[in-house]
Design a protein that fits this description.
about 525 residues; three-stranded antiparallel β-sheet; three-stranded mixed β-sheet; 8 strands; mainly alpha
Length: about 525
């Protein structure tokens, strides 16, 4: 019993101790919470004060910026107002000046009106006096005014014709002495300052091989390889008994070059069959096209011609593979461009424009298609298409007199083109065509009445015409030479120019017996 009581007392004491401990813990926790809350309130008050101070500082900064901007704007407005006032003053001064000039003009107008009235009255008086004098003259001479005018005009016409003929002869003689000398000086100086190269090309290319065994591989079984090569390049390949040589025949030099390079690669590689041939030809064609463009760019850079359209650059490069009368077209165009630049500088014109026109004057010979147009007209249309300037387009189209020359560049290009084509060694002609041209020259001059003999000399550069002294007068010889020259220009094609010399002489023959 006592044990149970003590147990109960112990339990009660433990519960009381636990109650007291928990009460103390609650008091401690509450005091700590109050401390934390106080600290948080103090920190919040500090942060609040800082934020208020920052807000006030920002407010002061914004106000100062606004005041500064307002002062700047006010200053600008004041400056604008000052300028406006100054302009108003100037306008007022100008208005006063205009009013003063208007008054002066009104005064002048009144003076002019009065003078006009005076002149009108005097003109009427003079007209009446003139009519009276005319009537008296008609009465004295017995001719009407119209008849007298016609007789006077006829006599003046005869005198003017005689004076004009003499004056024209004097001018022509003087021009021949001075212009010919000056033109020769400019031409010779231009030619001397231009270094030229001569290249003669044919319509065939010879491809050299190391031994004749390669010919069989090029032909292939039943001719398959050579047929594939001809179909891919468009060139006729002639394999005959010529030792160590294959002939590539075709009128397109670009295709011949593609065929030659393709053959070279095929022979070096050793694999020759139709599929390989098509692959190599396509690759070589791309290489040649790239080389054409590179040649055009290099030519334009060498000549200092800038801003050309890419298509015009490609056409310039394509000239490398073209020829005219055996003269390489690119070399001819470069030579013409340099001659044009030198001659333009001698004459005080723009040498850059002249060089550009000289370089492009024959682009009508290398189009991608083949229209039925003269190469000068086609070149002019291509230049217009690719936005070249009008004077350069006209120089291209007029260098063979197929359109009218409208700028000074045109005759320069025409002359330099003739110089480049006519110089010795520049071009070669077939003998038959050369002889036929000489015969045509002589027969054309013989067709005129009064012509006894004709002689084409200096390789067709000069035509001497012998006329009968009893059939043609000295005055008519000049007319005859001009007519023959015009007919040759209209009906014949020739390089350079042809000089026509008409010779009239009187011979007296006697025999001593």
């Amino acid at each position: 019993m006592d044990t149970a009581i003590w147990i109960i007392i112990a339990i009660a004491a433990g519960a009381l101790g636990f109650f007291l401990a928990s009460t103390m813990a609650r008091k401690n926790a509450k005091s700590k919470a109050n401390t934390i809350l106080d600290d948080a309130r103090r920190e919040a008050d500090v942060i609040k004060e800082k934020k208020i101070l920052q807000a006030k500082e920002e407010e002061m900064k914004i106000l100062s910026d606004a005041e500064r901007n307002a002062s700047q704007r006010l200053q600008k407005v004041q400056t604008a107002e000052a300028r406006a006032k100054q302009r108003d003053m100037q306008l007022n001064q100008q208005q006063g000046e205009l009013n003063r000039r208007k008054k002066e003009l009104d005064t002048l107008k009144l003076n002019l009106d009065s003078r006009q009235l005076t002149l009108d009255s005097r003109s009427e008086e003079l007209e009446a006096t003139w009519r009276k004098a005319q009537e008296e003259l008609e009465h004295i001479s017995g001719l009407s005014a119209e008849e007298a005018r016609e007789k006077l005009v006829e006599s003046l016409k005869d005198e003017a014709k005689t004076a004009a003929a003499g004056y024209i002869n004097d001018i022509m003689d003087d021009a021949k002495l001075t212009a010919s000398k000056e033109a020769k000086r400019i031409v010779i100086q231009s030619i001397q300052r231009v270094a030229t190269e001569t290249a003669v090309e044919n319509s065939v290319t010879v491809f050299h091989i190391d031994n004749d065994e390669i010919k069989g591989r090029i032909i292939g079984r039943e001719g398959r390889n050579i047929r594939a090569l001809e179909a891919a390049t468009g060139i006729e390949i002639i394999v005959d008994d010529t030792p160590e040589a294959i002939v590539l025949s075709g009128f397109d030099p670009v295709r011949r070059e593609i065929a030659r390079l393709a053959l070279h690669q095929l022979v070096v590689d050793g694999r020759i069959h139709p599929a390989r041939i098509e692959e190599v030809v396509a690759k070589v064609r791309r290489q040649v096209e790239e080389e054409i463009i590179e040649t055009g760019k290099r030519t334009a850079i060498d000549l200092g011609v800038h801003g050309l359209h890419p298509e015009l650059i490609r056409m310039v490069g394509k000239m490398k593979y073209r020829s005219s009368y055996g003269q390489n077209l690119l070399q001819h165009s470069r030579e013409t461009a340099n001659l044009c630049a030198v001659m333009a500088s001698e004459l005080g014109l723009n040498p850059k424009k002249a060089r550009r026109a000289g370089l492009l004057h024959d682009i009508g010979k290398v189009p991608d298609d083949e229209p039925e147009l003269p190469h000068a007209i086609l070149g002019m249309k291509l230049a217009e298409k690719f936005k070249e300037k009008p004077d350069i387009c006209n120089a291209i189209g007029a260098h063979h007199d197929e359109v009218e020359q409208t700028s000074l560049l045109a005759p320069i290009v025409q002359v330099c083109d003739a110089i480049s084509g006519a110089r010795p060694g520049a071009r070669r002609e077939i003998v038959e065509a050369y002889i036929k041209r000489l015969n045509d020259l002589e027969q054309l001059a013989l067709s005129y009445p009064g012509v006894l003999k004709t002689y084409a000399i200096q390789a067709g550069r000069e035509l001497r015409v012998i006329v009968g002294a009893d059939k043609i007068t000295d005055e008519e010889t000049e007319k005859l030479s001009s007519e023959i020259a015009k007919k040759i220009q209209d009906e014949m094609t020739y390089p350079g120019q042809v000089k026509i010399t008409v010779i009239r002489e009187t011979r007296s023959v006697a025999f001593a017996k």
